[in-house]
Amino acid sequence: MATTPAFDAATWIAQNTYGGTLLTPEATAAVANFTMMWNLFEGIVCGNAAKVPQFEGLAARLSEAAVPLDTMNSLDDCLAFWTLRYRTPEGFTDRFLGLYFRNNDRREIVEEVLLGQRQSLSDKVLTLMIIVYRLRNNLFHGLKTLEMLNDQVDNLNTASRCLGVLMTLSRSHLVTHSPRG
User: Taking phi first (over 0 means left), then psi (-120 to 50 degrees means alpha), and beta for anything else, what does residue 143 get?
Assistant: First the structure.
């Protein structure tokens, strides 16, 4: 049986698109990692239908579980990254506005968590899922130019790390190293 040759998306993009040669290997890797992690998260945790109401239910369930300190630290690290990215002493940044919240995206909770006004684990987990969801929607539906991805490497890497922690917390039978409660 003949094997299909491997396809190299980065090479194709560089050769066939405007701006494709400006895309860094780090951006290509960050997009690939995030895409894989989102696919697993949506399938494992969200039953292939990620929506904010599902995130609310998951956040409530996870907040009732015993969360190991290292896992809590990982969640707090993700939250700290986005707090620094999306807030200044004067308010929220253009990057925050660039998340393009929809009406049902619970923006008020996200803002209050990033401002430190809400501290519950449920609110933090919900905020993380909503931010990652907005990144996902913007990546899959809102890309304007390829080189914009170069500015998203840390953002997407943080989102991938966050998704890994959330999947571990979900205690799915598909995740091998669930935290002990």
Answer: beta
- pTM over 0.85? The answer is yes
The DSSP string of 13-65 is HHHHSTTGGG--HHHHHHHHHHHHHHHHHHHHTSTT---HHHHHHHHHHHHHS
CA distance 84 to 157: 15
In a structure prediction context, what are the per-residue pLDDT tens digits for the chain, which is 181 residues long?
A: 778 889 988 899 889 988 888 889 999 999 999 999 999 999 988 888 889 988 898 888 887 877 778 878 899 999 999 999 999 989 999 999 999 999 999 999 999 999 999 999 999 999 999 999 999 999 888 766 777 888 899 999 999 999 999 988 876 666 665 444 4
The residue ranges of every structural domain in the chain are 48-169
